[in-house]
Amino acid sequence: MKIATLTLNPALDRTMYCGSDVKIGKLNRAIAQSVTTHGGKGTNVSCVLKLLGIESTAYGFIGGDNGDLFLKLLKPYNIKTDFTRTKCESRLNIKIISENAEPTEFNESGGPINENEKEDILNKIKNIIYDVDLFFMGGSVPPGIEKSIYRDIINLGSEKTKFIIDCDGEALKLCMNNLKKPYIIKPNQFELEQYLGKKFDLENNFDVEIEAIKREVKKIYDETGVIILCTLGEYGGLYCGSEGIYYIKSPKVDVKGFTGAGDTFLTAFVSVYFGMFEVQLPPSTSLTPPSANRGALEREKSPASLLAEGGGSAEPEGVEKSLAFAVAASTAKVTKPGTEFATLDEVIGMYEGITGK
């Protein structure tokens, strides 16, 4: 299976740890060493794929001293890259984690990308897209690039290529309103709220609000046929597809770095869902949903035993396994600083806890 990833607006991510809630207009002191790492949805996907033994090629824009450091930080992962060099500097984003683990982000806009740079990356994509089975695209769109870029790339592909999209706002709506649609989208709660134009208060009314989210993603799936993976932060993750709606709640952990958690979730799910990675567990491990009082895994329904034509997992149980592995991987990820990823053993340990072994 040939896989490509695209990051139009990569960044250096600097994570700072503060001793109390961050206050705007006040001095905020760090209580631990800051961590600087590479950041970008497509490159994060490529890194996690590599950690699972799966090859891919990462495309994107890169520029200046920040871009050089980005590539240096990426080098240990030994992923294949084909970046387009830009005259503009790659951006720097600041992530702040306070004592109570509430994350705050300050992200630069990136760009501007000029016409020649845009043409260069589109030519690279045109040259490989008919051979690509899975094409991951995501992240913000830098100045100089139209919001329609993800939709336009989808239109370049053949029926063979399954596009997996993790973007928000106008870029996401243009993809979803297109005649040729993505195969999977992965909004987080905020991005889903933005797409729907409504809010969900999981913190204060979880039981009611999680059911409301399930209803809304079901509507999206019924109207578009696009599989929805929705990450809900500390509340876990949700899947909606032909097999039904599945929800898994995350276990509580100490958060050290949230950057890349959603990308880890998406990659882990897709890797198992499409049969590229097999979760190896002792025979006694069961994927049967735990008792109601534990509430870790919920299956809303599973009306279909097969995916729509061209699908991934053939059975609803495969969706359960994929989603459980995704939640385990993203939960293990947030226990690591910056974009450092958890080891496979740590992910498997988390997975066994989620599935009720």
What does this structure look like?
The protein is an alpha/beta fold. Mean pLDDT is 89; it is low at 283-297 and 301-311. Helix 1 crosses helix 8 (261-273) and helix 8 (261-273) packs antiparallel against helix 9. Helix 5 (169-176) links the parallel strand 9 and strand 10. A 10-stranded mixed beta sheet has the order 5-4-1-8-9-10-11-12-13-14, sandwiched between helices. The protein has a 4-stranded mixed beta sheet with strand order 3-2-6-7. The longest helix has 19 residues, at 206-224. It folds into 2 domains: 1-19 and 31-182, Ribokinase (UDP-N-acetylmuramoyl-L-alanine:D-glutamate ligase), CATH 3.40.1190.20; 197-357, no CATH class. 43% of the residues are buried. It has 10 helices and 14 strands.
The geometry reads as: globular
Number of domains: 2
* Computed CA radius of gyration, to the nearest angstrom: 20 Å
Largest sheet strand order: 5-4-1-8-9-10-11-12-13-14
Short description:
The protein is of the alpha/beta class and 357 residues long. It folds into two domains: 1-19 and 31-182, 3-Layer(aba) Sandwich (UDP-N-acetylmuramoyl-L-alanine:D-glutamate ligase); 197-357, no CATH class.
List keywords for this structure.
357 residues; alpha/beta; UDP-N-acetylmuramoyl-L-alanine:D-glutamate ligase; 2 domains; ten-stranded mixed beta sheet; four-stranded mixed beta sheet; 10 helices; 34% helix; 20% strand
Question: Helices and strands in order, then pairings?
Answer:
Blueprint lengths: L2 E5 L3 E7 L17 E5 L1 H11 L5 E6 L1 H11 L5 E6 L5 E7 L5 E4 L8 H14 L5 E5 L10 H8 L5 E5 L2 H8 L7 E2 L3 H8 L9 H19 L2 E5 L5 E5 L2 E5 L12 H13 L23 E3 L16 H18 L10 H11 L3
Parallel strand pairs: 1-4, 1-8, 2-6, 4-5, 8-9, 9-10, 10-11
Antiparallel strand pairs: 2-3, 6-7, 11-12, 12-13, 13-14
Helix pairs in contact: 1-8, 4-5, 8-9, 9-10
